[in-house]
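Private note to self, pasted from the team thread so I don't lose it. Backbone tokens:
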């Protein structure tokens, strides 16, 4: 599925928990993350890019012209999102297929910096944690009780999605185990038939040899 060299695969936390981290990336590097996501689940990706400052030995805010190219592909390797964003922002997408989604980031151009190392701060949130309720309360005029009720309903819905996804994974694992078992069985049977055929041929060949030498 991942065909690009130098790709870093980081397995993030399971559903319902956001993960904050940072990593270093060069101007020609591409960093990818694998996230297991149920279907119809909202995902928010927060990022912020800093540039290495050789004078201080630390990292400073990136220049305004620099951006990050973000790509998101689903378990079928179908591109969901592919855009160039600024050096700091928030990306949102919704999964439509359960399974491993790949999120890749790389710099938009080498013209803004020459061999400079970047530090990218990344935070990925899924499901109920990715819903921004403050905006909903302002736009839809929810009361505090209504907002809390909506949060609980969204949380129950997300738990149901995760349970369905776990059942999906178990079914896939069962199918893979059954397929492997069948292949092992037929391979063993094929080996047995080949060995049996070779043994029969050798016995017949030895018998003809002894008869030709008049040893039997």
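Design output:
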């Amino acid at each position: 599925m991942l065909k690009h060299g130098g790709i870093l695969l980081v397995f993030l936390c399971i559903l319902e928990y956001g993960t904050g981290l940072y990593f270093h990336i060069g101007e020609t590097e591409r960093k990818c993350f694998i996230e297991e996501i149920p279907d119809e689940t909202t995902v928010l990706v927060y990022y912020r890019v800093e540039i290495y400052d050789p004078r201080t030995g630390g990292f400073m805010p990136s220049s305004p012209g620099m951006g990050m190219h973000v790509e998101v592909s689903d378990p079928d390797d179908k591109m969901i999102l592919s855009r160039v964003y600024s050096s700091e922002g928030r990306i949102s997408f919704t999964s439509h297929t359960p399974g491993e989604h790949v999120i890749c980031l790389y710099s938009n151009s080498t013209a803004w910096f020459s061999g400079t190392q970047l530090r990218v701060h990344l935070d990925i949130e899924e499901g109920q944690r990715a819903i921004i309720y403050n905006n909903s309360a302002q736009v839809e005029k929810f009361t505090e009780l209504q907002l809390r009720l909506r949060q609980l309903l969204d949380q129950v819905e997300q738990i149901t999605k995760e349970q369905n996804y776990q059942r999906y994974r178990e079914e896939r694992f069962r199918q893979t185990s059954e397929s492997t078992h069948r292949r092992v069985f037929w391979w063993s049977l094929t080996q047995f038939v080949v060995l049996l055929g070779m043994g029969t041929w050798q016995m017949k060949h030895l018998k003809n040899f002894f008869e030709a030498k008049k040893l039997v």
